[in-house]
TrEMBL record, chain A:
<dbReference type="InterPro" id="IPR050490">
    <property type="entry name" value="Bact_solute-bd_prot1"/>
</dbReference>
<keyword id="KW-0732">Signal</keyword>
<dbReference type="Pfam" id="PF13416">
    <property type="entry name" value="SBP_bac_8"/>
</dbReference>
<comment type="similarity">
    <text>Belongs to the bacterial solute-binding protein 1 family.</text>
</comment>
<feature type="signal peptide">
    <location>
        <begin position="1"/>
        <end position="25"/>
    </location>
</feature>
<protein>
    <submittedName>
        <fullName>ABC transporter substrate-binding protein</fullName>
    </submittedName>
</protein>
<dbReference type="InterPro" id="IPR006059">
    <property type="entry name" value="SBP"/>
</dbReference>
Automatic annotation (TrEMBL), chain B:
<dbReference type="InterPro" id="IPR000515">
    <property type="entry name" value="MetI-like"/>
</dbReference>
<keyword id="KW-1133">Transmembrane helix</keyword>
<feature type="domain" description="ABC transmembrane type-1">
    <location>
        <begin position="84"/>
        <end position="273"/>
    </location>
</feature>
<feature type="transmembrane region" description="Helical">
    <location>
        <begin position="83"/>
        <end position="109"/>
    </location>
</feature>
<dbReference type="Pfam" id="PF00528">
    <property type="entry name" value="BPD_transp_1"/>
</dbReference>
<feature type="transmembrane region" description="Helical">
    <location>
        <begin position="194"/>
        <end position="216"/>
    </location>
</feature>
<protein>
    <submittedName>
        <fullName>Carbohydrate ABC transporter permease</fullName>
    </submittedName>
</protein>
<dbReference type="InterPro" id="IPR035906">
    <property type="entry name" value="MetI-like_sf"/>
</dbReference>
<feature type="transmembrane region" description="Helical">
    <location>
        <begin position="116"/>
        <end position="140"/>
    </location>
</feature>
């Protein structure tokens, strides 16, 4: 068999590819033969509503697209990056994977994820993203490329025990809007009741390197953790340090204890904690445990003084790894369905994540009835307009950079050292781990 | 013995017995306390598995409204039966295979002298210091190439031999009376007969203790099945239990119900072989 290209032509093509980066082939226009794709999903690795809803989504998709078979593979959320990397080495990369936003830069820059805005025909892309929250779509971008389509998604919420508010003489219809009010309310509750005032999954044990909630607090004060170009960390900016110092103030006032996320969550579920800030995705879990015990309510993320809060998001995007044009088309069809009106109706009503198509919350065909019956989701939806993306760090040490920030913040808030000095130290250590340093 | 001494012997024996019992009382009290401390977490697991979701954190010793709802939910949420069966198959297979390879290798190390045998034995012993996590990825790539991903076979494959079994059995065989083995050889017994007819029956205690250790450590294994399995039906019970711990909160009730169900086979295994376990552990000095 002869190859149509000469060695010289092949060499030229190789050099050109290396110089310009990979050229992504356009995906197939349609599926004309049966095709099977794999979908790595962390909800499938759990038991309960997240798993059942994902199975339903896959089954409905396959029923509507009989030529496409989807193999749903449950992968633990903390192991997704490692698992994808291992399967790439084993030459079995997933076709689609649910990747948390903090791992996105790594997936795009190191694991060879497909830039979907380049692989998907422009008209197809434009038609699909119409009606989606623009700030949600921005979450999938790393630099000038879009590697993910936002999928499961939540923002920070203050869950509060309305019964404890009443017992302390506070009005549960007026939840705290600022961090100063959080402190005052917590002090009042601790003074008038047996309960603790405030806790959160911002930093500390069991939060790990997931800095999305800390980023929310920092951004709400006008600070940042990384510059716009994504080349340098900014842990030592005055506004960033000030935000961490505010949390230290809560601890010094005796209202913010250094307890693990699990303990805080259990304490909230048991009715022994008045306010708890964490992901809106916990809503169904907290509701099930509050039922019959106390009235659970939710409020938006608190701000600094007059300045409204800038909530970030936790959650995941759908990332395409398939290099085969036909499988890419199948993967894109699955991604479209999962983020369609029907997809978000299942995701929101069954799992509790936010819909990135906000119009469906008032549409009787989709979520209206559910939202009417579950009004706790409203404050969460109201935050979407102000939402800022959870920024991920570039390079192979991205987790260590995030861990450096989280450890420094924990030390600064719950320790006795100088907040500014600790954050400046973290800045130097983290910057040394950034690419090009 | 005179009638007088006989008359006084009984009360004296009683007094001695009573004094002995009094002396042993603190020891028994301490043992009872320690037993309660050991048993309490198991009791709490079972009691928590009977509490409904909105009562899961109540501190009473017995649930105010006990129900089997968590068991139903656990059985509905994960394929518990298949996972338990897989775990039993994997644990039993690994135990049998590791004992088999361990006995054969140990016999060779203990009975044959060959060039650099101590180096080979040292290398085998060193593998004990290599954690599974270090070789997990190469093992995964090999299993993928063999087309065995997501199979129970692949869960067993990397555990065909273990340094601990080889080392312990080697030491036991080395300590075996040489005269007995020489006598058997003089009677015309070959290596195969010596091993299975004389050595193995006499090492029952050591083999039983090793079997229990291997079975329990395989039963509790988490990382290798986590990496290898792609479907819950082909996975093991430890992965199933972990499925109740999610980013959106931990479902304590079903988790405790699943943990209780997962503990039962091991508990039964222990209760049935209790005497053997304790004797063999004491003999071998294993803890």
């Amino acid at each position: 068999m002869t190859f149509p290209l000469s060695r010289r032509a092949l060499l030229a093509l190789g050099i050109a590819t290396m110089a310009t980066g990979p050229v992504w082939a356009q995906m197939a226009d349609e599926i004309i033969e049966p095709v099977e794709i794999s979908f790595y999903n962390y909800n499938l690795a759990t038991a309960g509503q997240g798993h059942d809803a994902t199975v339903q989504l896959i089954e409905e998709f396959m029923a509507a697209n009989p030529m496409i078979k989807v193999e749903g593979v449950g992968v633990n959320v903390n192991d997704m990056g490692t698992r994808v990397q291992t399967d790439i080495a084993a030459r079995r990369p997933p076709d689609v994977a649910q990747v948390i936003f903090s791992d996105l830069a790594y997936a795009g820059q190191q694991l060879g994820a497909v830039p979907i805005d380049q692989a998907v025909p422009q008209a197809d892309w434009d038609a699909h993203v119409e009606g989606m929250v623009p700030s949600g779509l921005d979450l999938g971008k790393v630099g000038d490329k879009t590697y993910a389509l936002a999928y499961t998604f939540s923002t920070p919420m203050v869950f509060y025990n309305a019964d404890l508010f009443r017992e302390a003489g506070l009005d549960p219809d007026q939840p705290p809007k600022t961090w100063e009010e959080v402190k005052d309310y917590a002090l009042t509750i601790q003074d008038k009741t047996e309960a603790n005032g405030f806790a959160g999954g911002i930093i500390g044990v069991q939060v790990g390197p997931y800095d999305w909630l800390l980023q929310s607090v920092i951004l709400s004060n006008g600070g940042s953790v990384i510059n716009d170009a994504g080349t340098a960390v900014t842990f030592d900016r005055p506004e960033t340090i000030e935000a961490v110092a505010m949390l230290r103030g809560l601890k010094d006032a005796g209202v913010y204890g250094n307890i693990s996320r699990g303990e805080a969550l259990e304490s909230m579920a048991a009715g022994k904690l008045a306010m708890y800030i964490d992901s809106s995705g916990l809503q169904n879990h907290l509701l099930s445990q509050a039922e019959g015990n106390y009235e659970l309510r939710a409020a938006q993320m608190p701000g600094f003084g007059e300045r409204p809060a800038s909530p970030t998001n936790s959650g995941s995007g759908l990332v395409m790894f398939s290099q085969d044009p036909v499988k890419q088309r199948a993967a894109w069809e699955l991604m479209k369905f999962l983020t369609s009106e029907r997809g978000y109706t299942i995701i929101t009503s069954k799992i509790g994540y936010l819909p990135l198509r906000t119009a469906i919350v008032d549409d009787p065909e989709y979520l209206k009835d559910w939202v009417d019956a579950n009004p706790l989701v409203r404050p969460n939806l109201a935050q979407l307009e102000r939402m800022e993306p959870w920024r991920s760090y570039p390079g192979t040490s991205y987790r260590q950079v995030a861990a450096t920030l989280m450890e420094a913040a924990e030390q600064a808030v719950f320790g006795d050292g100088d907040v500014a000095e600790i954050m400046q130290g973290a800045q130097a250590r983290a910057q040394a781990m950034m690419p090009g340093s | 013995m005179t009638a007088e001494t006989a008359t006084f012997a009984v009360p004296r024996r009683r007094a001695v017995r009573r004094a002995g019992a009094t002396r042993m009382l603190p020891g028994h009290a301490a043992m009872i306390l320690l037993s309660l401390i050991c048993v309490f977490p198991v009791y709490w697991m079972i009691v928590s598995s009977l509490r409904p979701a909105n009562r899961i954190f109540e501190g009473t010793l017995w649930p105010t409204a006990p129900s089997l709802e968590n068991y139903a939910q656990a059985l509905q949420s994960i394929p518990m039966g298949a996972m338990l069966w897989n775990t039993v198959v994997v644990s039993a297979s690994v135990t049998v295979i590791q004992l088999l390879t361990g006995v054969l290798a140990a016999y060779a190390f203990a009975r044959f002298r060959f060039r650099l045998d101590w180096v080979v034995f040292g290398l085998v012993a060193l593998t004990w210091l290599v954690p599974l996590q270090v070789v997990m990825i190469p093992n995964y790539l090999l299993v993928a190439r063999l087309g065995l991903l997501d199979t129970v076979t692949a869960l067993v494959l990397p555990h065909f031999a273990h340094a601990l079994a080889i080392m312990l059995l080697t030491q036991s065989i080395r300590a075996f009376p040489k005269e007995v083995l020489e006598a058997a050889r003089m009677d015309g017994a070959g290596h195969w007969r010596v091993l299975w007819g004389i050595i193995v029956p006499n090492l029952r205690g050591m083999i039983a203790s090793l079997a229990i250790l291997i079975f329990i450590s395989t039963w509790n294994e988490y990382f290798w099945p986590l990496l290898l399995t792609r479907t819950a039906e082909n996975s093991v019970v430890q992965i199933g239990i972990q499925m109740f711990i999610t980013q959106e909160g931990t479902q304590w009730g079903p988790l405790m119900a699943a943990s209780t169900m997962a503990s039962l086979p091991i508990l039964i295994f222990y209760v049935v072989l209790q005497r053997q376990v304790i004797q063999s552990f004491m003999k071998s000095g294993l803890r």
